[in-house]
Amino acid sequence: MGAPKTNPSTDAFRAQDSPLPYVDHFHLDPADLRKVLGLALSSGGDFAEIYMEHRAYDFVNMEEDIIKETAESVDLGLGIRVLSGDRTGFGYTSDLRLEKIEGAARTAAAIASGKAKAAPRRPREKRLPASVYRVSAPADKAGLRKKIALVREAYEAAQKSDGRIAKVKAYFQDSLSHVALLNSDGLFVRDTRPMVKLVCVAISEKAGRRELGYWGGGGRVGLEYFRNVLTPRAIGEQAAREALLLLEAVDAPAGEMPIVLAPGHSGVLIHEAVGHLLEADFNRKRTSIFWNKMGKKVGSDLVTIYDDPTIPAFRGSYNVDDEGTVPRRTLLIDKGVVRGLLQDRLSAGLMGRPLTGHGRRQDFSHAPVPRMANTYIARGEHAPEEIVKSVRKGFYVASLSGGQVEDSGKFTFSVSLGYLIEDGKLTAPVKQATLIGTNIDVLRRLEMAGSDLEFGLQTGTCSKEGQDVPVTDGCPTLKISRMTVGGRA
Amino acid sequence: MKRAAAAGAAAAPSDLRVLAGWLVDFARKCGADEAEVSVVDGRDFDVDVRRGRIEHLVEAGSRSCGLRVIKDKRTAYASSSDLAPETLRRLVRNAVRRAELASPDACSGLAPLAKTSIDPAALDLFDPAVASLDSKTKIRLARETERIALADKRITNSYGANFGTSETRSVLANSNGFVGEYEQTDCELSVGLQAGGTDDKVEDSWFSAKRHFQDLATPEEVARKAVERTVRQLKPRKIGTQNVPVIFEPTQTSWLMGFLFGCVTGTAVYQKASFLAGQLGRRIANGLVTVVDDGLLAGRLGTRPFDSDGLPSRRTQVVEKGILRNYLCNTYAARKLGLESTGNADGSGVGPNNFYLEPGKTSPRAIIAGTKKGLILIRALGHGLNSVNGDISRGAFGLWVEDGEIAYPVSEITISGNLGRILQGIEAVGDDLEFFSSVTGPTIKVAEMTVAGQ
Question: What ipTM describes this predicted complex?
């Protein structure tokens, strides 16, 4: 790990006669904001920061064959954070009158007790490298009719694909966030973050049995994505396909057996089993099973894991994290050896480690914590077919609906569609099952990795300590020699 | 400072009730047939103490406004945390214009004005003692709780203790003439712990959440319970895959009830997203099972005078001695199903009030004593709940029971079953119902589920 990239800066606030469009967006005067930072440091805090956010959001949903409703929302506010050693004081307000902002600053300041140590430094704007967002037809500029057409297309594709599709739901959402951050080190940075998402849910029905299929896509892109990358029609058809397949699915087997994970979706396993426990806060506090394993071998040679917030267009990507650090691809595990942690400013400072650009927050009302962005396991050498062929009797995980981990490394994840593997071939589809294991066991038992790295749906959200952030994860086809499948005996 | 927003704010009605009424009128003026406005003003405090030191302290106030307009039976929603009048006016105008793009929906529209209303004061939702609690006391309670827990030598690490309070004032007004307002408080004390070494860690936590400060458990009680729940999992064994009776502790009955709630909402039923669609009046559980949704229980966490459609809260029998009696509906879902709203409107969806399984007469101790071999489910991980078919599959932690006694903890197992079959197979209901959250239930014993291990 090297030091984070520094970017050429310009003085953000010198030209008072031509106010910055950004700060203007919040109706806030730079001189006032500097005073607020001074107030935030007035009780002796080491560091203060103002995070401003304006987010506009649109939503359309269709069910029961009608465009049921549309919604628009506006979130506007700012959060003020003061660090004092390992302590964090935080205040926020959605009322941007100066006296309310000062109130939030005083709340945050009170985490420290004493006299002001230093005044905030003169701010300079940090110029960001080339944007990782890929928008040619911005959703915020498109009329609602266009968004309605996307929803309708996905809905109808699912509905028309088969007579056994009993119900369909489809929705579209897009948002545009303007964020601006000013801290007492003199950093001023701003970013405008687009996001779109189109989802279809199909329910199939046959002889009283019902099953559900889900598909969707999006990311930090514009509406062109739904023409060029993943069409609404494909989203609708995939949701229907999954719902129909499940009608024929058998109960999952139960017990320990070899597992093959499909590429893409199964990245959830890496997210749960490894990613969370390499977030720096859990290691600094020594609650993670990894805290004393830096540089140690914890998995097979096939295990190389990265988190990269800079993959263009991805849902988990960003130009700058929520505390002003330009992110970099971070190596977490290299050939089975723990090499890195996902850092935010607080943990990096206390641990004496470089920043990685993983300090994220749900919105202005939360302080940042270390989070994943786009987490993936690197590709291997094996052809995917070869991997399936190597299993005489086992379980193939085709799609996953989520997972959960605790600091001991014990995790579960929910399989929404799987297949039995019999004599090296996929046979009957399998419905709802849970996989459970301990991360170190699974990392050691990773036997084969495919050459087919893929990423899962661009619709995922990760929750930690009550904060939701968009993420993506990925992996190639993987074989784990044995793992517990929770099905029916 | 530029005062564009602030100057406008001064000219606007400052009182939330006035603001809500003004927005309803403005929406009507803009052409809405019907309009509904909710405004929430909250004040939150939250402190985390870890290893004796304050780690994180948050204090803030926030306001937000939600809006629904209906024009020609077409609906649009909007919401904002920016209460500047020009933002709100723009959102109203956009919403009325946007409504035209939705499809006409015969079931849309506000609830008719109810003939009765419930006095919020009778529901005991607000405690001035919570509102006036000073920061020092809150910090002391969290610190004390963690200190007591860490004094136990078996505890090897701490996630920290938390004390949080909130005070919220909610206003709802609509163009049918409904105006309602209430204030509520919450306070919560919790602590999370680890026991064991780095490679054989176990973890758990405990909490107490109440509307009234005097009802909150003491630091000693919270700490003791958290320690006991954590250390009882030390040195777990693995077990083989088998079908056995499963005893759900109240915290586990609580998620099972949450899953049942999702399956009895009118929304899930008309969307055919519930295996209980079309089952009204049928036996869905055995006779020991009675499930109630009650928005009127004084002082409880799920209590409120009216729902988000402005209808007065009530008590609804959902399952009566095994028979499915009612789906829980907001006005919209009720119209879709040709039923009556049960006062469960929550935002634009359906939410629980106090949703609980009625207690039985058997003590948890007797339930365990009556089990020759089985699993006591103490924690579950993961999201394997499928309302469409009732399937359940989750990671689990438990205590193994042999000959009516707890033998040893077990981990790395999963439990799987089906809610329909579980409800039929409940063979004992405990007498230990507590309202620790708004969705709750006592200890129960389910005749058989698959526990998968080695």
Answer: 0.87
